[in-house]
Sequence to fold (107 residues):
Amino acid sequence: MFELIESFRIWLGDPTIADYAGHFGYFFLGLGMFLLAKKNIFGWISRFIGEVTWLLIGWAINMSSIWSWGILFLFMEIYGFYSWRKNREKDGSEPKVRLAQEIKENE
Fold:
């Protein structure tokens, strides 16, 4: 098991792969900001994916400034999600997420 983890770390530590992974992470962070601005609950999931991606990159290239701040931001994302959800339940508003079935019913 540890050998598999170490191989993943070496693979992600490759500069080219880390660069692509960084773009992947930033894409999901940016998408998450956009979705949250639109009050879409999937923004939290997208931001979580982006933060975890950067945590893995920081761990793989052994840069504590990336993974330590990533942990802090990840906890802030989790707190923001629960805070947002709690406030939504309090005021009775619903997130702007429509299921495919709801869309068909309204057409």
In short: The CA atoms of residues 22 and 54 lie 7 Å apart. The helical segments are 2-13, 15-37, 42-60, 64-91, 100-106. Residues 2-106 form one domain.
